[in-house]
Design a protein that fits this description.
- The protein is mostly helical.
- It is built from six helices and two strands; from the N terminus they run H-E-E-H-H-H-H-H.
- The protein has a two-stranded antiparallel sheet with strand order 1-2.
């Protein structure tokens, strides 16, 4: 209430008399600090909030960086990492088959398995570092390259790898071999 009296004095509003009533506020604040303003006083109060540093004004809880929470069945790591590996694997398998005609089993037996392990380790590590720092894919997604699009592309790539392996097994040769 003292700040109200100081603001009204600074703003130039006329404080004519002090409230002497016995309301509940006077039990805690002496009556000399409670100004009584005239009805036609020119006191204007503007209340403005300061903008928050984030662009969205909804407080989103920080994601858990606990190992068990990150790798849980519904956690952010398993499907995202598997999807990223499937996307790289599908494009690499199709690219090598188009380039030299080797089917998936021939690619894996002729040194492709070590490339698979190296790429898997590198992509898994690169995907886990932001997750353990509390950064989510949803916070970094845009309109076109969204986190939902990445999940769906990963799912289609997983299905594509399984379909490629099954087709080559049934056909007995590479997909593009006659």
């Amino acid at each position: 209430m003292t700040s109200f009296a100081m603001q009204s004095t600074i703003l130039g509003s006329p404080v004519t008399s002090f409230s002497r009533s016995n309301n509940s506020l006077n039990k805690f604040v002496p009556s000399c600090y409670l100004p009584h303003l005239e009805k036609n006083s020119r006191l204007r109060v503007k209340c403005m909030s300061e903008p928050k540093p984030s662009t969205n004004f909804i407080d989103v809880p920080k994601p858990s960086t606990n190992f068990i929470d990150v790798f849980s069945f519904s956690g952010p790591a398993p499907e995202r990492i598997n999807g990223r590996l499937a996307m790289i694997g599908f494009v690499a398998a199709m690219g090598v088959e188009l380039a030299n005609g080797a089917d998936l089993s021939a690619q894996l037996s002729s040194g492709g398995f070590s490339w698979f392990l190296g790429t898997s380790a590198l992509l898994t590590l690169a995907s886990l570092i932001p997750l353990f720092q509390g950064v989510t894919a949803e916070s970094k997604s845009g309109r076109i390259m969204s986190s939902d699009a990445e999940i769906w592309n990963g799912r289609f790539a997983m299905l594509g790898l399984v379909a490629l392996a099954f087709t080559e097994y049934v056909k007995g040769a590479g997909l593009f071999q006659v």
